[in-house]
Design brief:
With 242 residues, the chain is mainly alpha-helical. It is built from 7 helices and no strands.
Length: 242
C-alpha cells in the first residue's frame, strides 16, 4: 500500500463530486466565520477606544469641548451619534412645539430619540453574528454528512472486493475521518468567536447606556447625575398611551 494513501492530496484525488462539494462548503464556511471574527474583533477594539472619549466628555468645561472629545473624525462612533441626535432632538422639540410630538414632554421625546440611537447601534453590533451562529450549528452536521458518505464508499469497496482488505477501505475511511475533523475545526472557532463577540457587544452597550443615562439627565435638568460607575441605569421607561 502506498505510504501516501492517507495524505490529504490522495484523499482528495480519491473523492467524488459529493465529497469535494462538502470539503469546499466547509472551507467557504471557515473563511466566512474567520472574516467575521477578525472584522468584528477589530471593531470592538475601536469601540473600546471610543468609550474612553465618552468618559472624557464629562471632564470638559463645555458641551462643544465634550463633543470634540468624542473624536468626530472616527466613523460610526455610537457615543457621538447618541450625543448629536440627543441635542438635535432637544432643539427640535423646543423649536417645533406646534407639531404632533409637541404633546410629548421633553423627557419622553428625548428618551425615544436615545432609544432609537441605541437600537441602531445594537443592530450594527449584531450584524454578522448570524453567520457565526449558522456556521457553528451546521458545520458539524455537514462534516457528519461527509463522514457518512466516506463510510458508504468503504462499504461499496468491501462489497466489490468480497473482503475487508485495508487497501479497499483505507481511502474512504480516511476521507470520513477528515470530514469529521473538518466539520469540528470549522464549528469550534465559530462558536467560541460568537460567544466572545456577544460578550464584547454587551460590554459596549452597557457603556453606551451608562453614557445615555448621564446625557439624558444633563440635557433635561442641566446637571450630571452622580452614581456608582459600576451600576448601569436604564433609560426612563416609555409611558404607555392611555
Amino acid at each position: 500500500m502506498n505510504e501516501n494513501t492517507f495524505s490529504l492530496g490522495q484523499i482528495w484525488a480519491q473523492g467524488d463530486s459529493v465529497s469535494h462539494a462538502v470539503a469546499i462548503i466547509l472551507i467557504v464556511m471557515s473563511l466566512a466565520s474567520w472574516s467575521v471574527i477578525l472584522i468584528k474583533a477589530w471593531s470592538l477594539m475601536q469601540l473600546r477606544r471610543m468609550s474612553a472619549g465618552a468618559k472624557q466628555f464629562w471632564h470638559t468645561t463645555s458641551f462643544d469641548e465634550g463633543m470634540a472629545a468624542l473624536k468626530p473624525t472616527q466613523a460610526d462612533n455610537p457615543f457621538r451619534d447618541l450625543a448629536s441626535r440627543s441635542t438635535e432632538a432637544v432643539s427640535h422639540h423646543v423649536n417645533h412645539q406646534n407639531e404632533l410630538h409637541g404633546v410629548l414632554n421633553l423627557n419622553d421625546w428625548l428618551t425615544s430619540t436615545m432609544r432609537q440611537s441605541i437600537d441602531d447601534t445594537t443592530g450594527r453590533l449584531q450584524s454578522g453574528l448570524s453567520i457565526l451562529a449558522s456556521v457553528g450549528s451546521t458545520a458539524p452536521f455537514i462534516g457528519l454528512f461527509g463522514t457518512v458518505w466516506g463510510i458508504y464508499h468503504a462499504l461499496i469497496g468491501i462489497g466489490a472486493a468480497g473482503q475487508a482488505t485495508l487497501d479497499k477501505v483505507a481511502g474512504p475511511v480516511g476521507e470520513s475521518l477528515v470530514m469529521t475533523a473538518g466539520g469540528l475545526a470549522v464549528a469550534i472557532p465559530a462558536v467560541l468567536g460568537y460567544n466572545a463577540l456577544v460578550r464584547g457587544n454587551k460590554e459596549i452597550l452597557a457603556r453606551l447606556k451608562h453614557f445615555a443615562h448621564d446625557l439624558h439627565a444633563f440635557l433635561v435638568t442641566g446637571g450630571k447625575v452622580r452614581k456608582n460607575p459600576a451600576t448601569v441605569h436604564p433609560l426612563p421607561a416609555r409611558k404607555e398611551a392611555q
